[in-house]
Specification:
The complex is a heterodimer of chains A (708) and B (169).
Chain A lengths: L2 H9 L1 H21 L5 H17 L1 H14 L3 E5 L2 H14 L4 E4 L3 H5 L2 H7 L3 E4 L2 H9 L15 H12 L7 H18 L2 E4 L3 E3 L5 E5 L3 H7 L3 E7 L3 E2 L2 H16 L6 E6 L8 E7 L3 H5 L15 H4 L2 H6 L10 H12 L1 H8 L7 H5 L6 H9 L8 H9 L2 H15 L33 H4 L10 E6 L2 H6 L1 H13 L2 E4 L9 H5 L3 H15 L6 E4 L2 H14 L4 H11 L2 E3 H12 L16 E4 L3 H7 L3 H9 L4 E2 L15 H4 L1 H16 L5 E4 L2 H13 L5 E4 H11 L1
Parallel strand pairs in A: 1-10, 2-3, 2-4, 4-7, 5-8, 7-10, 11-12, 11-13, 13-14, 15-16, 15-17, 17-18
Antiparallel strand pairs in A: 5-6, 6-9
Helix pairs in contact in A: 2-12, 3-12, 9-10, 16-17, 16-19, 24-35, 26-27, 26-28, 27-28, 27-30, 29-31, 33-34
Chain B lengths: L1 H10 L3 E4 L3 H12 L4 E2 L5 H7 L14 E10 L4 E5 L3 H9 L2 E6 L4 E2 L6 H9 L4 E6 L4 E2 L7 E2 L6 E6 L7
Parallel strand pairs in B: 1-10, 2-3, 3-5, 3-6, 5-10
Antiparallel strand pairs in B: 3-4, 4-7, 8-9
Bound molecules: iron/sulfur cluster (2 copies).
One iron/sulfur cluster (SF4) binds next to helix 15, helix 18 and helix 19 of chain A.
């Protein structure tokens, strides 16, 4: 993705405002729509049923085909997009027709149907309002559910004026009325109607179509021939599974309890001479369904929620963040539907915040699939040296980091922070200032020792960033844990957790790092392995067992380690509960004299580890602070490791949103549980001249325990 | 249940009226049709007869101002109506007319979509062909600047006429 294209979208003020407003309105509407519904249970059921369906895909296709043909419909199975296009042209020609009226179908965009048909003399008319706007503009949808979200009413007025030959003012009710009048003749004159379907049922051969505008019912009723173009993954065994999809889709897509119309169609009911053709599109789906690593992507019900909550989508929109399918799942499906060459650039655009995973209607590990797909991207020059040679060699890596301390000296401004960086590194500092690499990393400040007491034993795994940039945070961590009654040991041979390598698609390197750290961290018997960086926790706890799944000895070690890994706040929160010396019920949180702070949830802590209550318990119960929550407290700060280096323009905008929300709380302290978030937010606050301090929870605990 | 249905249906822009007899409903319908053509082709015969609307069902779907149907059931959680649309003419009328009025027997209202599952399944698995719809409020779009606008292709108004027993012959 060229940075100019990205910058273009960032500068598009209408797009930015539209997406920002939507990002703010969507969660509210969604929460309301799901009132009284157990979303977790619902999506687990969908995921489970879809999983089973994917395993039985060939059988389901056969059953659906047989049932649908019993109703009199004709079913055409098409392996490739070109097959589907040819079959549809053939159907249209066999009717002597040259005019196709369409309701919304992403599958049609997927196979680029309109261009093909138009080139073969068939006029195509999109009747979904958003799709019609896109068609008139000659563009592609920028959202799966709201295709024209990037167009403002002035754009639409101009397009409609041109299309209808009459002057259209930029007045939304007027424009909608205009579309109604103009498209109506299309329904009445169209010889063939085309729709998609949201779900197809194998037992009855019926389709269900979920729409709002009412055009679906018209294109399936008025023209004498109806063609439904459906991806084979839409087939479910029966109504039971279909109901869940119908229940979840409108709520998750637009925050509606149900759309205006859910139509169930079984066979042709259009009267004399009416035909129903069902075109089943494979386009790589059957292979994907059988793929053990990526098959779950097909569980997707195309609700678009993964785009709705994505902080990167919010900044650049779907023309950058996706190909035909947009949002998180768009990144995942593109390599399979359209080829890796179309996906390479967009796969790098995800910052890894996992917001999408949290709302996915089909419980897909979207972020995990994106990361795994990066393994398959061609590696940029130099990257392999960086990861393959340097990161694997701990001494070389750490020596390089030390050397960086000397190199940065002339660049430091007041207060020791770095504002000017040479050449390419300048991008990293966009919109923020960087903390310098410390003169002495934490590893040089502690003694290597072994466990010697009867106390509970904590192995401290600091992570590179804290070690080399925030050694005082590491000291605070060790000190506070000791004050809380643990014995703390820092094994000096610990090395990078491997996440930077994994996120860059260097899985072999990540595997090496996993083995190295497993040996180091299991060398002494400890009760807990404590991290202060949730990204490291994810790596240690979740990635190591996954990466080493095929090596039985190391896999066993990885499982053993995983059981001991705790985020700092998780472990410390337990201490409060056990001692119950400090109130944790928040009853004091309104008391005068308490420091008021705000808390930023790190993506990897909240959604990676499911930890978000514990830090708050620690901050109120142990530190004695009162928390004033900011808007979107769990939305990404834009750090994402090397992301801010690769896409500084985007990261900067994500950061500015965060800074705005922090400032609005009027507090003087932001607590975080991640050194990366600390660095990012600290830099952002300093760059805008805001006088707030950012502290890791461990430092606040240490300060409070020191005060006594 | 009836109240929950009303709240949900009104929240999506439907108009709800209670009537004690068909005659009352007839006056109301005449009022909203305003003298325009009426299509009754999705109505069961007994209702059509009881309403005795002149030329009912004969209007060309595209010209009807008002289309009158009967719901098989209602869903309280979403304010939705289950309407059988197997006949192509009646179906077209429900999608083309600017006003759609639907009779609903309040005793057929069920709490959630899932409570209709059995019935929907029966409607699909028995018989060779079927076409039915869950209708929730009037036709809507938010495709321009996400501003909710009613009545893009389908009905601009949805009136729900509640009469107990109206489903039975
Ligand atoms: S992980 Fe975050 S950035 Fe990546 S696709 Fe999901 S929501 Fe977007
Ligand atoms: S991946 Fe999940 S959230 Fe995204 S469109 Fe598919 S079902 Fe919806």
């Amino acid at each position: 993705m060229s940075n100019a294209t990205i910058q273009n979208k960032i500068n598009d003020t209408f797009l930015r405002r539209a997406l920002k407003n939507f990002a703010a309105a969507y969660p509210v509407a969604r929460a309301k729509a799901f009132e009284g519904v157990d979303f977790e249970a619902l999506r687990s059921r969908i995921a489970q049923n879809k999983q089973i369906a994917l395993q039985q895909m060939p059988d389901l296709i056969a059953r659906f085909t047989a049932s649908a043909e019993r109703t009199g419909a004709k079913v055409h199975f098409c392996r490739r997009p070109e097959d589907a296009r040819a079959v549809m042209l053939e159907i249209i020609r066999s009717k002597g027709a040259d005019f196709l009226v369409k309701s919304k179908a992403m599958t049609s965009e997927e196979i680029d149907l309109n261009h093909y048909l138009e080139a073969n003399g068939v006029r195509c008319l999109e009747t979904d309002l958003g799709e019609w706007i896109i068609q008139l503009a000659g563009e592609r949808p920028s959202h799966m559910v709201m295709p024209a979200i990037h167009k403002n009413k002035e754009d639409v007025a101009e397009l409609f004026s041109k299309a209808t030959g009459s002057d259209c003012p930029p007045d939304i009710p007027f424009l909608v009325q205009k579309a109604r009048e103009t498209l109506r003749s299309g329904f009445l004159e169209g010889q063939v109607g085309m729709s998609g379907a949201n779900v197809a049922m194998a037992d009855s051969g019926a389709l269900a179509i979920i729409t709002n505008e009412g055009n679906g019912r018209l294109v399936t009723t008025l023209p004498r021939t109806h063609i439904a173009l459906i991806g084979v993954e839409k087939i479910v065994p029966s109504m039971t599974e279909a109901l869940d999809v119908i229940e979840v889709l409108p709520k998750n897509a637009t925050g509606q309890k149900l759309t205006s119309y859910v139509s169930f169609i079984k066979g042709s009911t259009g009267g004399d001479g009416h035909e129903l053709h069902i075109v089943l599109l494979d386009n790589g789906r059957m292979d994907l369904a059988a793929n053990p690593d990526f098959g779950q992507a097909l569980q997707c019900v195309k609700c678009g929620a993964c785009a709705n909550v994505c902080p990167i989508y919010e900044i650049v929109g779907g023309h950058v963040f996706g190909h035909i399918y947009v949002g998180g799942i768009g990144l995942v499906l593109t390599p399979f539907f359209h080829g890796m060459d179309k996906a390479e650039e967009i796969l790098k655009l995800c910052i890894g915040c996992r917001k999408c995973n949290e709302v996915c209607a089909a419980k897909i590990d979207i972020e995990g699939l994106i990361v795994d797909l990066r393994d398959k991207i061609r590696k940029p020059f130099g990257q392999t040296f960086m990861f393959g040679t340097m990161m694997k060699n701990r001494t070389l890596f750490h020596t390089t980091l030390r050397a960086a301390y000397l190199a940065q000296k002339p660049l430091q401004g007041d207060g020791g922070r770095i504002r000017h960086l040479p050449l390419m590194f300048d991008a990293l500092a966009a919109g923020k200032s960087l903390p310098p690499i410390a003169e002495k990393p934490y590893r040089d400040l502690v003694q290597e020792k072994r466990f010697s007491s009867q106390k509970e034993r904590v192995l401290f795994y600091s992570g590179c960033l804290a070690d080399f940039v925030y050694p005082e945070l590491c000291m605070d961590t060790a000190e506070s844990l000791e004050r809380l009654g643990y014995e703390v040991v820092f094994p000096k041979k610990q090395s990078c957790c491997g996440i930077p390598a994994r996120y860059s698609g260097e899985m072999d390197v990540a595997r090496d790092m996993a083995r190295i750290n497993l040996d180091v961290l299991l060398e002494q018997e400890a009760d807990y392995v404590v991290t202060i960086c949730p990204t490291c926790s994810i790596s240690l706890k979740h990635d190591f067992p996954k990466l080493l799944a095929k090596e039985s000895d190391y896999h066993a070690k990885a499982e053993k380690l995983a059981a001991k890994v705790f985020n700092y706040s998780e472990l410390v929160a337990r201490k409060i509960d056990f001692d119950s010396a400090q109130p944790t019920d928040g009853s004091l949180s309104g008391v005068e004299g308490r420091t008021i702070i705000t808390y930023h949830d790190s993506c990897h802590l909240k959604r990676g580890c499911g930890v978000f209550e514990e830090p708050r318990t620690v901050l109120t119960g142990l530190v004695g602070a009162q928390i004033r929550e900011m808007t979107d407290c769990d939305k990404c700060c834009g750090f994402g490791g090397s992301y801010s280096l690769k896409y500084p323009e985007i990261a900067r905008e994500v950061l500015l949103n965060k800074i705005e929300n922090i400032k609005a709380t009027g507090t003087t302290t932001v607590a975080v549980d991640c050194p990366g978030c600390r660095m990012q937010i600290e830099g952002g606050l300093e760059a805008v001249g805001a006088n707030l301090r950012v502290e890791h929870t461990a430092s606040l605990v240490a300060q409070s325990l020191r005060r006594g | 249940m009836c109240d929950r249905f009303r709240l949900a249906a009104e929240a999506v822009g439907a108009v709800i009226k209670h009537f004690s007899c068909i005659g009352e409903a007839r006056d109301y319908l005449m009022g909203i049709a305003g003298g325009g053509a009426v299509s009754c082709s999705t109505l069961p015969t007994h209702l059509r007869d009881a309403l005795a609307i002149d030329a009912s069902g004969t209007a060309v779907p595209a010209d009807a101002v008002l289309c009158i149907s009967r719901a098989e059931a209602g869903i309280a959680a979403t304010g939705s109506l289950l309407i059988d649309l197997k006949g192509p003419e009646g179906r077209a009328a429900t999608a083309l007319a600017p006003i759609h009025a639907v009779f609903l027997d309040p005793t057929t209202i069920v709490p959630t979509l899932y409570d209709l599952g059995e019935r929907l399944n029966r409607m699909l698995t028995s018989g060779d062909q079927a076409y039915f719809s869950l209708t929730t409020g009037p036709s809507r779009t938010a495709d321009i600047e996400r501003v909710l606008t009613i009545g893009v292709h389908g009905p601009i108004e949805l009136h729900i006429l509640m009469i107990e027993g109206c489903c039975h012959e």
